[in-house]
Amino acid sequence: MLTTWEDTYKKGQLTLWIFLALKDGPKYVNEIRDFILEYSEGTISCEEQSLYRALRKFKHLKIVGFSSGKGHKGPDRKYYELTEIGLDILLEFISRNIKLFFNKKLVELMNLK
Amino acid sequence: MKFITKNLVAYAALLLVYSLIFRYTLSSLLEAEKFILAMVSGVIYGVLIFFTAWILGKAHTIKKFVFDAGLGFNITTYIVWGLVSELWFIFGFNSKYESIRSVHYALIIWGVFLVLHFFIYWRLRSKTIKGVLKSEIFD
């Protein structure tokens, strides 16, 4: 039962994690994936294909932009970054939906203290 | 939003070729009184159009984020099919079993459906941002 809930919950979080990874600085797809894996403490893993699909959509909507940078050995890599609109959306989203979890009462309820 | 994509142009070109081949085959078979084969050629023509539009339309929507609910492909099919059919009769390539009236009836009925399709597209358009369905942006 718990894993079913978790699966549904995680599915809706990918955008937030991508945006957080890009707020941290421009990254190429593998770096975004590694960031998500590291900061979600291994609870959220995503396939490269899902990341590409989401990034392509965000790029089309001008939420995300990219620049080409040197790869280690192979061809140039696309380094994705949040655009001004993207950053505004993320900050507004955090302000409306994430900050409330830091309410004293909720922190106590979640036994985080 | 960019409606006319490479895929749509490629579709129009393929459809033109299919339609010319179909018209020629249909008229020849009817002239030879091979009515069953004429029907089969119609089915093949329809299936071919369907799959070509399906493949090119999918890429048109997914890769280029063109959300027009298939309206661009429907209008293109209407124009190309209508033009080829009309010109076929104008130049007198039709068989004695074909009537231009059936082409006109088809265009009128299809035209009504095209208007309906336009209204569906118009309603769905409010649910998109730059061609992406709002419900699919952050899914």
Task: Please specify the SSE layout and strand pairing.
The complex is a heterodimer of chains A (113) and B (139).
Chain A: H1 2-11, H2 14-23, H3 29-39, H4 48-60, E1 64-69, E2 77-82, H5 84-98, H6 104-109
Antiparallel strand pairs in A: 1-2
Helix pairs in contact in A: 2-3
Chain B: H1 6-31, H2 35-62, H3 71-90, H4 100-125, E1 128-129, E2 132-133, H5 134-137
Antiparallel strand pairs in B: 1-2
Helix pairs in contact in B: 1-2, 1-3, 3-4
Q: What can you tell me about this protein's structure?
A:
The complex is a heterodimer of chains A (about 110) and B (about 140). Chain A is mainly alpha-helical. Chain A has a single domain, classed as Orthogonal Bundle (Arc Repressor Mutant, subunit A), CATH 1.10.10.10. A two-stranded antiparallel sheet of chain A has the order 1-2. In chain A, a hairpin with a 7-residue loop joins strand 1 and strand 2. The longest helix of chain A has 15 residues. Chain B is built from five helices and two strands. Chain B is elongated, with a radius of gyration of 17 Å. In chain B, a hairpin with a 2-residue loop joins strand 1 and strand 2. In chain B, strands 1-2 form a two-stranded antiparallel ribbon. The longest helix of chain B is centred in the middle third of the chain and has 28 residues. With about 140 residues, chain B is mainly alpha-helical. Chain B has one domain. The interface between A and B is small, with 5 and 8 residues.
